[in-house]
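Tokens as discussed.
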């Protein structure tokens, strides 16, 4: 089995609702994401995937969607205030914990056709969370369009 991992970075703010610790307050992180892809085969170039293709697909989405954004749960009372004032924010179905953000990135990559098996999000230098899923896509030739969507895989 072949594996490749790409590291990406982004800055984000969040807070946790229904939580008594200090993370219930608005605060920010310099996040570091490790995205691991896996396949039993390589493409015609001898690669699982070109690292530039991971960047074109996933880093672009992270930059556009999560970077320098306030990540909030849909039930957070701050959401309507930010919406009313035109402030940038991203609404999640769940509390924006490191675990749930890792899963969000995992799911976005899978939707784009990448054979991701694990995403690890480092919130700080000493704390990280991971989300893993089974391999359902095999390695092949990847072509991303201008929107970062994989248009040819296989």
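Sequence:
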């Amino acid at each position: 089995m072949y594996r490749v991992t790409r590291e990406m970075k982004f800055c984000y703010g969040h807070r946790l609702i229904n939580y008594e610790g200090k993370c219930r307050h608005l605060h920010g992180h310099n996040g570091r994401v490790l995205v691991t892809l896996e396949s039993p085969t390589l493409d015609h170039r001898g690669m699982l995937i070109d690292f530039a293709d991971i960047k074109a697909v996933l880093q672009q989405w992270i930059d556009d969607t999560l970077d320098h954004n306030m990540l909030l749960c849909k039930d957070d009372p701050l959401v309507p205030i930010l919406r009313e004032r035109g402030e940038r924010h991203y609404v999640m179905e769940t509390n924006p914990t490191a675990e749930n953000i890792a899963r969000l990135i995992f799911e976005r990559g899978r939707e784009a056709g990448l054979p991701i098996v694990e995403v690890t999000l480092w919130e700080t230098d000493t704390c990280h969370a991971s989300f893993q899923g089974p391999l359902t896509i095999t390695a092949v030739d990847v072509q991303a369009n201008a929107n970062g969507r994989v248009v040819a895989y296989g």
